[in-house]
């Protein structure tokens, strides 16, 4: 209280006042010591974060496991599937077929695996199983595969090239289009084809030897054709080649004559028909050099007819032997060995004409008059 009294002063008008300095000192709050601010607490790593990591890891592990199962063909239900790989087909297209048949589940993974493999898929028809892993699938569709299906095809004697290709397509060996393209434009190393220019499939007509073959289903078109050409080459022995050389005819001419014989006879009188053709070619007086063989005209027409009309015989075609002298430009079919030998070894006759009788047998004549008399007899 004494201290408080000392702080009091009086003004001239006896008004009491306080010492302002002292008052300020008393009223000012004590200065607090400043402490460094603590950094804000980091939010704690909650359980949700770890759960998210675990879920993502589980998903990745699951996907990886599924892909591994697909890659190694684990836990798959046993299923046999037939896969056809066509000539020039891309692996991406093949993988669609594999997935459709349940052989793979992940096309992208399969394509990635195949890109790291040096195995090349080739055309063919394959029997594959879901138990086969990626490596086994690729190996099975390769050239060294034992899974490629084979098909036996018997090509009849006298079939044209077009008929042969249609038969091969029917048997799933390859398509008519691919075979025709290969016949026209591929190289084949045989002496009998040496002078035949590429670009026209008919250059192989007559040389696709009729026989029974085993082909790969979906096999390469050139390989298929080459198999038939090689068979022809093997069948033409040194003896036959020498006989051709001695005959005064070329290989192509002999095969063309053989093709005419093949289409004109059942084989029982091939050597007689061969003699008629030879006689007409050598001595043109009796027929003016025209062979007048219906089979060649039917080849040009592209259809079979029991009777040719006068209009048919007027068509403009090098295969119309009623209007063109000599042999047609190519064989008209692929003859068998019997017809080839008939072309090489004709009977020695003076026949220039023949006609099929009602008895189903060919009758042969030396003169046109004899021929006409026989035809007239058939009308009575």
Q: How would you describe this structure in keywords?
A:
two-stranded antiparallel ribbon, 380 residues, 43% helix, elongated, Dna Ligase, domain 1, mainly alpha, 9% strand, two-stranded antiparallel sheet, 3 domains
Give a structural overview.
By secondary structure, the protein is mainly alpha-helical. The chain has three domains: 55-140, Dna Ligase, domain 1 (2-Layer Sandwich); 150-235, no CATH class; 238-379, no CATH class. Helices cover 43% and strands 9% of the residues. It is built from 15 helices and eight strands. The protein has a two-stranded antiparallel ribbon. A two-stranded antiparallel sheet has the order 3-4. Helix 11 crosses helix 12 (270-282) and helix 12 (270-282) crosses helix 14 (337-344). The model has no long low-confidence stretch (mean pLDDT 84).
Shape: elongated
In DSSP terms (H or I, runs of 4 or more residues), the helix count works out at: 15
* Terminal CA distance: 174 Å
Quantity of strands, as a count:
8
Order of helices and strands: HEEHHEHHEHEHHEHHHHHHEEH
Low-confidence regions:
none
Instruction: Please give the largest β-sheet.
Output: 2 strands, antiparallel
Helix-and-strand structural type: mainly alpha
Give the DSSP E fraction (strand runs of 2 or more residues).
Answer: 5-15%
Tell me the count of domains: 3
Give the averaged pLDDT, no decimals: 84
What value does the Rg take, in angstroms? 48 Å
Strand order across the largest sheet: 1-2
- Secondary structure: helix percent: 40-55%
